[in-house]
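Input chain follows. Return structure tokens only.
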Amino acid sequence: MSIDLNLLYILVQVIFLEGILSIDNAAVLGAMVSSLPKKDMIPWPGPLKFLGPMVHRVLGGQQAAALKVGLLGAYIGRGLMLVLANLVIHNPYLKILGAGYLIKLAFENLGEPESGEEDQTKTKKMGGKNFWSVVIAVELADLAFSLDNVVAVVALSDNLYVIMFGVFMGIVTMRFAASIFTWMINKEPILKPAAYMVVFNIGAELLLDEFFGVKVGSGLKFMISAGTLVLFVVYARIKFLHVLQPVFNWIAKSMANINELFDWALVPVVLVVKTFFRASASIIHLVIGLFHRSTT
């Protein structure tokens, strides 16, 4: 039985590439779910509360469940990107949209409100960090990351089975790495803002590629992401460096102002999305109600 060494070499490259790209993705997902309680059950809406105990046994507490749902979303998202790989590669608007979402996510979490706006912003953030809002944010981040990952893997091979296996390995890597990173954030809180800085880096790299043709290799991407995490930890540990804090505060306030402008511009889109989800929830509630009546 002969072995195609070239195919084996490409397969190893794909797995390695997906592993590298998935580690920084995992850091972000770990940071996103770290605010959720570990042991609490998922808060289901009234008609679906009966799912609580059963789903809790399968998925665990909110933090673990969000990661597992995120893993499922990563499979679906990257599977979709694989099917539409040619469209993804040749459609700059998808890359720009994904990059814009990642930068918006970074600004939202790294931004520091102006004096007098702290309480309002804090209340807004606390109100938005429930289980389902975190899950939606995780799924959107998965889709944005999938753009970068799938484009990179397709560049190595046009063999669909090789690509699918490589993407599968990358998602598994991301799932376990995200769990580890969540644990690390509890030990070293500075890693949470560091992860969102990694998000900004990835979004900026996508925009640099699209607008200026500056391609950042996967190895360099990994080094930038790892270096960002290390620099944040070094800053937290070395007190002398805290003389730079006023500069970082100014940058954080600027991010908050830009994010506020983004939010204002997105108000019509948010209203449309909320209306869609409310209408969908009403329909589901009606269908479940009719089903219960027909069975009683």
